[in-house]
């Protein structure tokens, strides 16, 4: 494996199926561009005469669209920005925190990352979309699924406050799991 000598940018992107590492190599003398997602080469272009521009690719099981923008910032300096689904990474992550809940937990010595997509009520665990069963209960809904030998459910209850909306809580066994901040 050749050493990444032209590595100019590394980003960590938290998606429903996991946290993905995006690395970008830019050879400003050769014009080479290489994009790696989770260590796997996605794009390789040698001898590009135009040193500025963009590279678009997909990330993760959900094939989320990502674009690296290459801009000149005077002389021979370049700025690299990552967009996810057409938004800057910062804006995307801020929006994501409103549309998803994430929990990190350890069960039987194994670590799990559970993500709820609030708009679809899809549940992801360690990169896999889970089979779920929803049921109405007295004070809201429960979305049931299994992680290994463990029965889990996400309880959705109205906060009673319009601005807060619905509160989602992950329950494993009889234990409430605190939400993670990514």
Automatic annotation (TrEMBL):
The keyword Cytoplasm belongs to this UniProt entry's keyword annotation: yes
This protein's GO cellular component annotations are: cytoplasm
UniProt keyword Cytoplasm present: yes
Could you say which residues form the signal peptide? Answer: none
Q: Please name the InterPro entries in this protein's record.
A: FAIM1, FAIM1_dom_sf
- Transmembrane region(s): none
The cross-references to Pfam families, in alphabetical order and at most eight, read:
FAIM1
* Compartments in which it is found: Cytoplasm
**Keyword set, alphabetical order:** Apoptosis, Cytoplasm
The alphabetized list of GO BP terms reads:
apoptotic process; negative regulation of extrinsic apoptotic signaling pathway via death domain receptors
- Predominant place of localization: cytoplasm
* Gene3D superfamilies listed in its UniProt record: 2.40.128.180
Q: What does this protein do?
A: Plays a role as an inducible effector molecule that mediates Fas resistance produced by surface Ig engagement in B cells.
- Give the protein family: Belongs to the FAIM1 family.
Q: What is this protein called?
A: Fas apoptotic inhibitory molecule 1
Name of the gene this protein is made from: Faim
């Amino acid at each position: 494996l050749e050493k990444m000598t032209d590595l100019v940018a590394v980003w960590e992107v938290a998606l429903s199926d996991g946290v993905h590492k995006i690395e970008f190599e830019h050879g400003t003398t050769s014009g080479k561009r290489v994009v790696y997602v989770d260590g796997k080469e996605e794009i390789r272009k040698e001898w590009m005469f135009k040193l500025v521009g963009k590279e678009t690719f997909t990330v993760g099981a959900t094939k989320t669209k990502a674009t690296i923008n290459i801009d000149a910032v005077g002389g021979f300096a370049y700025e690299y920005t990552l967009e996810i689904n057409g938004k800057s990474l910062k804006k995307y992550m801020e929006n994501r925190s409103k549309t998803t809940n994430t929990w990190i937990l350890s069960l039987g010595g194994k670590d799990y990352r559970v993500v709820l997509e609030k708009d679809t009520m899809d549940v992801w665990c360690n990169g896999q979309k889970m089979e779920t069963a929803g049921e109405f209960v007295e004070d809201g809904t429960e979305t049931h699924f299994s992680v290994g030998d463990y029965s889990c459910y996400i309880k959705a209850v109205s906060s009673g406050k319009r601005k807060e909306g619905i509160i989602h809580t992950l329950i494993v066994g009889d234990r409430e799991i605190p939400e993670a901040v990514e």
